[in-house]
Write the structure tokens for this entry.
Amino acid sequence: MSRAAVDAAQAAQEIPVCDADLEEVRRWDREDPIGHFRERFELPADIVYLDGNSLGALPVETHQRLEDVISRQWGRDLIRSWNVHGWIHAPERVGAKIARLIGADGDEVIVADSTSVNLYKLLCGALALRPDRSVVLSEPGNFPTDLYVIQGAIAGATPARRLRLEPADRILEAIDDDTALVMLTHVHYKTAAVHDMRAITERAHECGALVLWDLSHSAGAVEVDLNGCGVDMAVGCGYKYLNGGPGAPAYLFLARRHHDSFISPLSGWMGHRAPFDFVDDYAPAPGIRRFLCGTPYMLGLLALEAGVDLMLECGIAPLVEKSRRLSELFIRLVQRMCPRSSLRLISPADPARRGSHVAFAHPDGYAVMQALIERGVIGDFRSPDILRFGFAPLYTRYEDVWRAVATLAEVLASECWSDPRYAVRAPVT
Amino acid sequence: MSRAAVDAAQAAQEIPVCDADLEEVRRWDREDPIGHFRERFELPADIVYLDGNSLGALPVETHQRLEDVISRQWGRDLIRSWNVHGWIHAPERVGAKIARLIGADGDEVIVADSTSVNLYKLLCGALALRPDRSVVLSEPGNFPTDLYVIQGAIAGATPARRLRLEPADRILEAIDDDTALVMLTHVHYKTAAVHDMRAITERAHECGALVLWDLSHSAGAVEVDLNGCGVDMAVGCGYKYLNGGPGAPAYLFLARRHHDSFISPLSGWMGHRAPFDFVDDYAPAPGIRRFLCGTPYMLGLLALEAGVDLMLECGIAPLVEKSRRLSELFIRLVQRMCPRSSLRLISPADPARRGSHVAFAHPDGYAVMQALIERGVIGDFRSPDILRFGFAPLYTRYEDVWRAVATLAEVLASECWSDPRYAVRAPVT
């Protein structure tokens, strides 16, 4: 669907949030130009799923493709599938599809390993290009794995490096000529606050630093234009908005201008120039393929491809548009339906500065979320007190938003969450 | 099945190889104490699959479990599956099962990432413990990713290290007090030659070096006793004899005595002491869990679990026994049926020194293998001239061996492999 068609269709459905009732909201779903994508997912009828930013839902097509991958490709064609079903080229093929969602060229993105491992590859490659600078700049409260991987990569490194953490609103001024690398998450995993990718990237380049963005909470829900912003590197997750399934492989982006100068420290055989020559000495493959390491995770990779195909079929523009309308509706309905609660909006109120989820703090956030989940509204809790609600515009309906807020209002009004059973912590919270 | 029962059952079927005809070999299959496991795999009826050492076959149970994982766990229970279906503990749970196949304790093995990535984690951890030694010792022609990952890990490292390659029969004498680490593949991927794990590990320890074994071509087909040999570290592959599926995650072993002193350079959030506290500073989890990095590859991990469960149901002793009989039968039948061919046995003739595959060199090895594959006998080719035939004792039948050699004899006698179409190389060879 073209951007113009989306604009036209959605202009026709302005959202008068404060007055909307359930019937009104249902009408928006019926008139939603991308509403029919909901049927392309195997979502249970009895829940409202607002955690697609943690684990995306299962597309019908993915289920079918996985059955084919398991039964026919693995089971029947066995080892021959590396050639006859194109397994060997799947990492670049799926990477090129993801590139279209994030403003990159097809040969600048590859699917491999996890976000954490990909971050390590790019970090080490980038630091080697800035041997005379000591600082990796990030923000406190960045997604932990980003900070941990930086800490691991620079531990005991020569030359010595340090991780400097500055609050989001001080990042621009903190970039200086001792900055080797700026590493930030584009949309904050907890607050959904969006960094100004263009301004930070430009400032970093003015100072001679490189920039690495984590797109885990952006791709598929928020507009991302890596090449338009001149970004050097990016990583991102396959199992959130891209609907790649639990533990789906991740992707990495490296701008083409850096391809020849980056060497991955994880020099596994699949990143070799000629892996099937089985020679003793490592020589990196040309281009993005050098960032492969071991044998690709084929089940997860092909599941991810099905998820990305579905997203491309919809197009990114209507997803971005609907994402904002969903989160805006949620916030306004909370204002109306939960007027005297202890909820405190943590996310930016301006939808232009917010990603595709909404976070509210509540003193008893953990118990409130457990009570919601028991009532079929699946969001998640983020320590210490955050209720997080994600809106996956490919399948979340306006009605889902209405039902979630109505349930939240009921839970808060009844104080049912104070039941001791909601305080019992599960391993994953 | 107990070891004694296996011995008794198999003593009754001595293999008089030179005289065996197809009927005789079929009788061995009928009398095979573990022959019924063949029916537990979805193998096509029209092929002889001798490449389970590259990609193991699909167990029926795995197909069923994956359907459950996709449909019910991912599709219906969604994010809740991390708790309700035990996803969060799957890396240690499956690791503990693999431990039983390789002579390790349950808390010494974890499933994570790829073999290459796991090798890197352990290598860096080990080198940090031997700062005053400069050599990583391996052999030329070791599986390439092992050598490449060493090269990547030591490139530009401080203190400086070097990779020293010595032929297999000179490894013992090459270990000295400048050796930081000995890194070898237990069963050679090409020749199937087995290293003396006990002798090399003991010699390394006498000299103060650490030892890291790659078990990719051992686990599930060859006897491995890591703790009996005092091994420090090991890695291995999930998609070969363990039948975990294409690109299944790999595993790593670290002896318990090293748990507190090893730090993974890949310090991702899942290896954190408290990943869901979302704090800024990395603190490694106690024990083996610190070797997790990003979010585990759940589809592949749960497929691997089903494969390992099947292997544990059979038990390792009868697999090791049958593996030797299969490869021995293959070699003796080649001697009988291909008497004037250009085949040259590359694998050790002594089954006690051989893994679970057999390699023959042939000047036109690539074309011969293509001709075999076209006739339904699936082995593989390894550069420059090696025909490789793998015997997965959980599903390979004696009859498969007979049919494979009969087809090989026919191909060689007819010289059909000289047809130019067999010389066209596929991306994966």
Notes: The two ends of chain B are 38 Å apart (CA to CA). Chain B touches chain A through 97 residues (CB under 8 Å). Residues 316-337 of chain B form the longest helix (22 residues).
